[in-house]
Amino acid sequence: MELSVLLLLALVTGLVILLARGHPKARGHLPPGPRPLPFFGNLLQMDRGGLLKSFQRLRDKYGDVFTVYLGPRPVVILYGTEAIREALVDQAEAFSGRGKIAVVDQVFQGYGVVFANGERWKALRRFSLATMRDFGMGKRSVEERIQEEAQCLVEELRKSQGALQDPTSIFHSITANIICSIVFGKRFAYRDPDFLRLLDIFYQTFTLISSFSSQVFELFSDFLKYFPGRTQANLQKHAGSQRLHWPQRGEAQGDPGPRRPRDFIDTYLLRMDKEKSHPNSEFHHQNLLNTVLSLFFAGTETTSTTLRYGFLLMLKYPHIAEKVHKEIDQVIGSHRPPALDDRAKMPYTDAVIHEIQRFGDLIPIGVPHVVIKDTNFRGYIIPKDTEVYPILHSALFDSRYFDTPDTFNPNHFLDANGALTKNEAFMPFSVGKRICLGEGIARAELFLFFTTILQNFSVASPVAPEDIDLTPRECGVGKLPPVYQIRFLSR
């Protein structure tokens, strides 16, 4: 059904509810915001450019903490570094609930480590962190996995012989293979058809989450979910990806294998077997399925998209790429692969990667939180179960912390002596109890993949640097760089 027809139906339904119910009543003492209409909420105050632009404009009027109604439900918006840190760090427990992203809620339904809440979330997060550490996170073994994958990448890029290519698929493949090695205990060939099909599903889903139509769906999800259309078709496609995991490691379902588990799935199944007599155990197949799905989605899309932004920026600013080449040559040379120990000796390259993450602004409105109890915040009372949006864009582009926030500038992370500096506004992985559990892996991947590529290749574009357009392809919950072509030329 066309979006315009759905909106018309929504308007008609809203008018009926408007006549039946009158004005909505907020619970507690919420922060200020524009007056909502029944059912429609603050639809009339929303910018055609999407939710982020709407929140930016409302912040100018209502301050750093305000309330908007997305359809019939109130959402508290946290805007700016201080407001986000006060909530997610200083009152971490109160703001530790996870809200819903409507477009994928029918897939996850509150299961899996990313979208779970309460004791389910605590049990799955503890298990996931411990297991990922056992299989390499925070240890040298994950570094070795990434280094091996980086060398496979170099071989693949050499085969292209400098031909123009869209880097999307190759960046997806290398980041997914790191998760595969932890979850399934193996990597997959870059042209494996099942592997490529799985990666395409994740890419299309992230594209949908980042789209304008998903933002409309967020406003009226309780109504629009009953109508067929692009969103529902994609949800069915995404659900199919759940079945796609098991053929790759299917033997694990029935038999955990040796007492020494081989991977994340083995470890989970052993735990599930251990707790099978506990009727309220959270270790069951639905949580396994959605946890694996969460790890793949978060571990593949975020890092691969950051790499795509990074190399587009290197094409746009070749003088910065040249400085990175110089530092790589001085610190690493050409006769050994980059290692994580090199990062401390390469402040400029590290600053460039930080700035890629900041400027790339991958999850601009943040993943929704929920307060788990009635919460006093800056003199307001936020009722239990109220959704909270920490606008990460507002921190990453905070002019109080970055001199030229709208400009790509690695000096944002360097002091007067050229040393790397910490910045409180730098929170691409969010902050607090819900910070991305794969942050360590992602940071290692970004450094090792980025430096290995630039150690072996220079990059070129058919478009002059001044003509390269950085305008994102989509910008919603997620942000996607424009499609572009690049040459990897052997150095």
Description of the molecule:
With 491 residues, the chain is α+β, with helices and mostly antiparallel strands. Helix content is 50%, strand content 8%. The protein has 18 helices and 11 strands. It has helices at 3-21, 51-62, 81-90, 102-108, 118-134, 140-159, 168-183, 193-209, 212-219, 221-224, 230-248, 251-254, 264-274, 285-316, 318-331, 347-360, 392-396, 439-456, and strands at residues 65-70, 73-79, 97-98, 369-370, 375-377, 380-382, 387-391, 457-460, 474-475, 479-480, 487-490. The strands form 4 sheets. Strands 1-2-7-4-3 form a 5-stranded mixed β-sheet. A two-stranded antiparallel sheet has the order 5-6. A two-stranded antiparallel ribbon has the order 8-11. A hairpin with a 3-residue loop joins strand 9 and strand 10. The longest helix has 32 residues, at 285-316. It is globular, with a radius of gyration of 23 Å. The termini are far apart.
List the SSEs and their pairings.
Elements: H1 3-21, H2 51-62, E1 65-70, E2 73-79, H3 81-90, E3 97-98, H4 102-108, H5 118-134, H6 140-159, H7 168-183, H8 193-209, H9 212-219, H10 221-224, H11 230-248, H12 251-254, H13 264-274, H14 285-316, H15 318-331, H16 347-360, E4 369-370, E5 375-377, E6 380-382, E7 387-391, H17 392-396, H18 439-456, E8 457-460, E9 474-475, E10 479-480, E11 487-490
Parallel strand pairs: 2-7
Antiparallel strand pairs: 1-2, 3-4, 4-7, 5-6, 8-11, 9-10
